Amino acid sequence: MQVPYVTPARRSLQIFGLDPMIARTERRRITLDVVNEPLEQGPQGSRIQVIDYDASTRTLYEPVDLDAPAVLMNDGLTPSEADPRFHQQMVYAVAMKTLENFELALGRKLRFKNAKRLRIFPHAFEGANAYYDPAKVALLFGYFCADPDDPGPNLPGQTVFTCLSHDVIAHETTHALVDRLREHFADATNHDVPAFHEGFSDIVAIFQHFSFREVLADSIRQTRANLRNPTSLVALASQFGYATGSGRALRDAIDGETGGKPDPAQMRTLFEPHDRGSILVAAVFDAFFHVYQRRISDLIRIATGGTGVLPAGDLHPDLVNRIAKEASKTAQNVLMMCIRAFEYLPPVDLTYGDFLRALVTADYEMVPEDDAGLRGAMIEAFRVRGIYAEDAFSLSEDSLLWKPPARGLELPLKPYEQRLAENARAFDRWGNTVGDDTSAKAMRAWAAELVKWARQHAPALGLDGGADPQLSGFHTNFRVAPSGELMVELVAQFVQTDKESADDPELGGVPFRGGTTVIGGADGRVRYVISKPMSAMRRARQKDYVRELDSTDAALAWCDDKYEARRMKARTSFAALHRGTR
Description:
The chain is α+β, with helices and mostly antiparallel strands.
């Protein structure tokens, strides 16, 4: 009997390391390992579809066939700035890797908004921009000519493709994933909400650099293990920044404008979403750097005979490899911690303080002891930048953990207990279910029970008894405790909307919402209630935010009624936010 061939679980695809400019000057062309799945030409998989149509020139490019034998044998096409088929390969590989990191952290399969495939257009238009379109569930990448007078290491006037930047692709894919996990984070209700979208997307892009061993090892050699020094490892979208004539990378992970020293006043003065997002990036990177230094301190002592001072000259290759291993491990821990925090975020009106609480709680649930000191480093990095959690009575870990409900609550599980074990059967308001019709029907019935339960327990959940709650999504969450025990939780998001507020001119087209994330155990007992009540204080704060943006919006002097009624959406769409900063 003939033994069937085994289909490999992984697929190797070549990409530019970071972007073509860096790959050209430092020979950083790397291979990404992604999940192997049957692909149609495009490539088109089960959750990502690349469509290479250029709307500016009305050109449909030939699609790549990644399952062609010659392509498979060479780990995909060789990196090329001139071949559109490689561009298609690049966006697919990086988007899949980003998706995989989210799934690894959250412990479940994800599908994109509206249960659709994420469509990626590598050459969508001519222009120095790239953005995520939530209505189309699509990533659109532009291309432009490098500045003729100050192109940096690029050829003056050369065509620069944003789809060839790992950082731009990872950043935009993260926007799509954040929108899938928390759709109302696209509603700008305070300064931190759009800034979080930008900052978090940068965090994912930068910390994915640490999985590129060649890039990481080179940076350790260049900086003599001081990863805080400016290198391509901690820079974001270098080619884009230089090609637009700025003379530097688009952004980086360091407190650049303050000479590397945190300035807490920036939280009161920096409001442009990318600038404010950079504060978040710097805080997370600072925490990473402190833990990384602690983890390599024994290696440095051994290598220096106890002095801690590295001798002049090149570092020993074995030392570089060991330091790179610790740096990569620490970076992956930080990235997983940041993504897992989504389980512990409120569904609306996020603040940086909420994210700090979620980081601490998510990590505590995974590693109660925190031997690495990651939670303490994160709390301190946020503190020195003036980021605090509301209602916390101190900066201790105990104070920052989300609290259980004031009185005992039990989620409705019967007769749905068996569904807790079906991690793929996630439900959201778009009917995004996976499985057969029977499973989907059962999940819809369970969703109705959860909404009924939320109405009954509205005060205890921080919900407004006068507004109808909607189930934004719920899923089971699996994690392994340090003891080895499998922990199963149910996470549900409830959102309430003041429908009349949609027409309130003082809110600029973004309705006033409240909401609660509920986390319960496999026994049904509610462990955390993370709420944003529909309070008068929150409503007033949202109006103050709109008035602040109104005061600097010149378009209000000549715009029509349609713009004025939806001005907040127009100002804070992903396309508008990236215009001029991409």
